[in-house]
Amino acid sequence: QIFIVRSIDSILPNVHEIKNFKRQGTITLLSTNEEVIQKIGPSTINKLSSNNIPGKVEKAFIAAEDRRFYSHQGLDFIGIGRAMIMNFRKREFKEGASTITQQLARIVFLNQDKTFTRKLKEAALALKIDRQLAKKKILVHYLNNIYLGSNAYGISDAAWVYFSKSPDQLTLEESALIAGLAPAPSYYTPLLNTNLAIKR
């Protein structure tokens, strides 16, 4: 079993590249001593670290996106089973069961194609990420890179765009509203659909 896991891991991307992830189209201007002067394009200027994730933000995203985040190993088999039953009953693919770890794998290494091959790669990567990174590291990389609508990439951008605040200044309600944007930011944006965003 260990041999199989190592063999699969060897053909997957290096998990530690997550910390160097930069979105395509981002231009970073550095000073002569290599300090960041400005970032232009889809990038968050102020990123959280794993020891300064605001508690309200953490709880809101886990409640909205992955309730068993701290107990599963990258894949939520209970969630997958529930989604399969719901999809079978409705005779269509409506329910998903992507964990925060799977979403991070998709953001950094994959794309949004709804193919079986991509889903397999995503699952394998999520398991590898969970084995090699601490949960807080996974969560902080996710919070720093998730697209939250209105050109906001990451929680810092979203907190500023929607509430003119930093993440640590957000109330529980504000944190919950931003966390609710993750599945469909354009659909749930409070800038266009206030009632829908509040309901979500």
Distance between the ends: 42 Å
Q: Helical segment tally?
A: 10
Give the percentage of residues in beta strands: under 5%
Average predicted confidence as pLDDT:
85
Count the E strands. Answer: 2
Biggest sheet statistics: 2 strands, antiparallel
Q: How is the largest sheet built, in terms of strand order?
A: 1-2
Description:
- With 200 residues, the protein is mainly α.
- It has 10 helices and 2 strands.
- It has helices at residues 2-11, 55-65, 77-90, 100-109, 116-132, 135-145, 155-163, 172-179, 185-188, 194-199; strands at 27-30, 36-40.
- A two-stranded antiparallel sheet has the order 1-2.
- Helix 4 (100-109) crosses helix 5.
- The radius of gyration is 18 Å and the shape is globular.
Describe how the helices and strands are arranged:
Elements: H1 2-11, E1 27-30, E2 36-40, H2 55-65, H3 77-90, H4 100-109, H5 116-132, H6 135-145, H7 155-163, H8 172-179, H9 185-188, H10 194-199
Antiparallel strand pairs: 1-2
